[in-house]
C-alpha cells in the first residue's frame, strides 16, 4: 500500500507509474500539469455558472499550451502585464477575449494592451494614457475577506482599485472621453476565499454602487478567488452555492434598485489549475525529522509567503512510517513544504510528489540561490510532452553581461 493513500480530492487521475517515469525521464524537480483536469475544470465552471462570463486569471499559470487549452474551452483571459499579454497572444488567444489588469500599469504595458477586449482601470492617471478602449473601473469594495492578509486585496486600505473620491474623478474624465467606453465595474475581494457569503456581500455592494452612479453599467466583474483545498482537512469553495446565491443576490438587488441586471463576470485562476498540478522531487538527504528534497522555495514560494502547507506522498510502497518535516534545498529556515508520515526507510533518490501545485507555483518560481527553474510537463491520457523546458545554467548566465 502507498503511504498515505492518495486523497482523490487532491490528485488528478495521473498514474503513479507515469509520475515515476516522468521523474526518471525528465529529472526533478519537475512540474506536471494534467491537461484533462484543466479542461474539466474549465468546463465545470462554465457549466455551473451558466451565463456568467468566465475569465481565466493567467497569473495562476501562464504558458502557451495551458492558455490554449483554456481558450479552447471557451474562457476569456485575464493578463496583468505586457509579459502575460505576450504569452496570451503567442498562444493564439484573440485580443477581444483578453482583459488587461494591473494597479500600476506602465506606459509599456498600456502600449502593448492597445486593442485588447477590456482594460480594467485602477487609477485616474491611467485614463490619461489609454485611448480607444472598452474599460471597466476597478473599485475597492472594502470587504475583509476570509483569507490570509496577503491575499485580502479587497479590504479597505489596500492599494487596489478606486476609492469613492477617485471613482468620481474617473467618471468625470470618462465623460469627456468619447473614445473610452465605460462598460462595467470590477472588484476583486481577494484570493483563496472560502465562503460564498463574502461574494454575496460584494455583489450587493456593487449593485448598490451601480444604482448610485445612475448610468448604464453593462458588466459586473466580481474577480477571482475561489478557494481550493490543499490538504484533506480543508474544503473546496462551493461553486454551486456561488451560482445560486450570488446570481440571486444580484437579481434581487437589481430589482430593488431598479437597475438593469449586468452581465456577470468572474476571474478564477487557482480553482482552474491548482489541482491539475503535481510537483515531483527527489529526496537528497535524510536527517530526522528532516527529509530534504532537490527543490523548495524556488519552485514553491507559497509556504514562505503565506505559511501554506501541503500533503505530499512518497511514490512507492514502504514499511512502518515516521513523522517527518519535508524541507527544500534553499538557504532559508522558511523553506518547508509540509509535515507528513513517510516510511522509516525513506532514502536519497526516493521520489516525492506534491499535489495541488498547479497554481502560483510555476508562475511564482524564482532563481533564488541560482537554482534553475523546473520544467513543466503536460500529461494527457497517459502521454507526456514538455511544455516549458527546464532552465539550464546557460540560461542563468545569459543575461549576466559580466
Ligand atoms: N483577478 C484579479 C484581479 C486578481 O488579482 C487575482 C489574483 C485573480 C483574479 C485570481 O484569483 P484566484 O482565483 O487565483 O484566487 N500568489 C497567491 C495568490 C495571489 C492572487 C493574486 N490575484 C497565492 O499563491 O496564494
From TrEMBL:
Residues binding pyridoxal 5'-phosphate: 225, 267-270, 360
Keyword check for Chaperone: no
InterPro entries named in the record: Ala_racemase/Decarboxylase_C, DAP_deCOOHase_LysA, De-COase2_CS, De-COase2_N, De-COase2_pyr-phos_BS, Orn/DAP/Arg_de-COase, PLP-binding_barrel
Domain of life where this protein originates: Bacteria
Binding site for substrate: 270, 302, 306, 332, 360
Record pathway: Amino-acid biosynthesis; L-lysine biosynthesis via DAP pathway; L-lysine from DL-2,6-diaminopimelate: step 1/1
Reaction(s) catalysed by this chain's protein: meso-2,6-diaminopimelate + H(+) = L-lysine + CO2
Domain (Orn/DAP/Arg decarboxylase 2 N-terminal) ranges: 37-274
Cofactor(s), names only, from the UniProt record: pyridoxal 5'-phosphate
Keywords: Amino-acid biosynthesis, Decarboxylase, Lyase, Lysine biosynthesis, Pyridoxal phosphate
Chain positions found as N6-(pyridoxal phosphate)lysine: 59
Enzyme Commission identifier(s): 4.1.1.20
Task performed by this protein: Specifically catalyzes the decarboxylation of meso-diaminopimelate (meso-DAP) to L-lysine.
Membership in a protein family: Belongs to the Orn/Lys/Arg decarboxylase class-II family. LysA subfamily.
Subunit structure: Homodimer.
Protein name, entry field: Diaminopimelate decarboxylase
Lineage of origin: Bacteria, Bacillati, Actinomycetota, Actinomycetes, Pseudonocardiales
Amino acid at each position: 500500500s502507498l503511504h498515505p493513500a492518495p486523497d482523490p480530492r487532491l490528485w488528478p487521475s495521473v498514474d503513479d507509474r507515469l509520475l515515476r517515469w516522468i521523474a526518471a525521464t525528465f529529472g526533478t524537480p519537475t512540474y506536471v500539469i494534467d491537461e484533462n483536469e484543466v479542461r474539466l475544470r474549465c468546463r465545470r465552471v462554465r457549466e455551473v455558472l451558466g451565463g456568467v462570463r468566465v475569465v481565466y486569471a493567467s497569473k495562476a499559470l501562464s504558458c502557451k499550451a495551458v492558455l490554449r487549452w483554456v481558450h479552447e474551452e471557451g474562457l476569456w483571459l485575464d493578463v496583468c502585464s505586457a509579459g502575460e499579454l505576450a504569452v496570451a497572444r503567442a498562444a493564439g488567444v484573440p485580443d477581444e477575449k483578453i482583459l488587461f489588469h494591473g494597479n500600476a500599469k506602465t506606459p509599456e504595458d498600456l502600449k502593448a494592451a492597445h486593442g485588447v477586449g477590456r482594460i480594467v482601470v485602477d487609477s485616474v492617471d491611467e485614463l490619461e494614457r489609454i485611448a480607444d478602449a472598452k474599460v471597466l473601473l476597478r473599485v475597492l469594495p472594502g470587504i475583509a475577506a476570509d483569507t490570509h492578509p496577503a491575499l485580502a486585496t479587497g479590504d479597505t486600505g489596500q492599494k487596489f482599485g478606486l476609492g469613492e473620491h477617485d471613482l468620481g474623478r474617473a467618471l468625470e474624465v470618462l465623460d469627456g472621453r468619447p473614445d473610452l467606453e465605460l462598460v462595467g465595474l470590477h472588484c476583486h475581494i481577494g484570493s483563496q476565499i472560502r465562503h460564498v457569503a463574502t461574494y454575496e456581500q460584494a455583489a450587493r455592494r456593487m449593485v448598490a454602487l451601480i444604482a448610485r452612479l445612475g448610468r448604464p453599467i453593462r458588466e459586473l466583474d466580481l474577480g477571482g478567488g475561489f478557494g481550493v483545498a490543499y490538504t484533506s482537512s480543508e474544503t473546496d469553495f462551493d461553486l454551486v452555492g456561488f451560482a445560486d446565491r450570488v446570481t440571486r443576490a444580484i437579481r434581487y438587488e437589481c430589482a430593488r434598485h431598479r437597475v438593469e441586471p449586468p452581465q456577470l463576470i468572474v476571474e478564477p485562476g487557482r480553482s482552474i489549475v491548482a489541482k491539475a498540478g503535481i510537483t515531483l522531487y527527489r529526496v537528497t538527504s535524510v536527517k530526522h525529522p528532516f527529509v530534504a528534497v532537490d527543490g523548495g522555495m524556488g519552485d514553491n514560494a507559497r509556504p514562505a509567503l503565506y505559511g501554506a502547507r501541503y500533503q505530499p506522498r512518497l511514490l512507492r510502497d514502504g514499511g512502518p512510517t515516521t513523522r517527518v518535516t519535508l524541507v527544500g534545498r534553499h538557504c532559508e529556515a522558511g523553506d518547508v513544504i509540509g509535515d507528513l508520515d513517510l516510511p522509516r526507510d525513506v532514502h536519497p533518490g526516493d521520489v516525492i510528489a506534491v499535489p495541488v501545485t498547479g497554481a502560483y507555483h510555476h508562475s511564482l518560481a524564482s532563481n533564488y540561490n541560482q537554482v534553475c527553474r523546473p520544467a513543466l510537463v503536460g500529461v494527457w491520457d497517459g502521454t507526456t510532452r514538455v511544455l516549458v523546458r527546464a532552465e539550464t545554467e546557460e540560461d542563468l548566465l545569459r543575461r549576466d553581461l559580466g
